[in-house]
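Next comes a single protein record:
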Amino acid sequence: MPTEAFIIHLPRAEQRRRQVEALLAGLPLPTSVIDAVDGRALSEAEVSAVYRRNLYRPYYPFELSRGEIGCFLSHRKVWQAIVDRQLDAGLIVEDDVEPDAALFPQALKLALAQVQPGDYVRFGFRSHTDAGRTVAGGAGVTLVEPAQVGLGTQMQLVGRQAAMELLESTSLFDRPVDTTIQMRWLRSMRILATRPVCIRQIDHLLGGTVVQKAGKPLGEVLSREVKRSFYRLSLRTAAIISKG
């Protein structure tokens, strides 16, 4: 099946260039670097053309930063590349990812063997997320259909039909990419996940995040945690209602 890998990289993040080179050398698929959309460089008109608050319930409690908007547009850029190149699937990799030398090849092999055009396969980086019904397994790895989709978009394998559906449903968006994916009732694509964890997020070794603002005051941090907890509860409730 025609499948390619895409590394999302913000050119001004020079400290990550060495990791990009390592991914280019190590990923076992034809690989391209996709220039990330720089949120700092977006005009007000460009932001308002794609971002609206409170599009979907449960409402996302925070206004998106320019970095989060740029991140979302970067993923849309790759989804479009999957469609334009008429790939069966594309492996999307953020530039702060380090695959596990032993587990990742087996997890990718399993995902490639099982992925369908309408599938979105997560390679999570936290062991406590994405638990669910086993779909397939072998060589020490499994592919599951998670009961609750985890956060993060460090790496995923996206089928062409899923990429088309994501493009159609996110011409406007109101929350980050990962929380948008969590609202699985808004689209028909099947979401799967590999287990156990086979990648590592190493942004702390590469100059830190290029999406989130660092150094928030304590009061703001506490307030955000309360709002985040309430949002997660609302999200779980919405998911239960959608299944009923």
Summary: The mean pLDDT is 93. The domain at 3-214 is CATH 3.90.550.10 (Spore Coat Polysaccharide Biosynthesis Protein SpsA; Chain A).
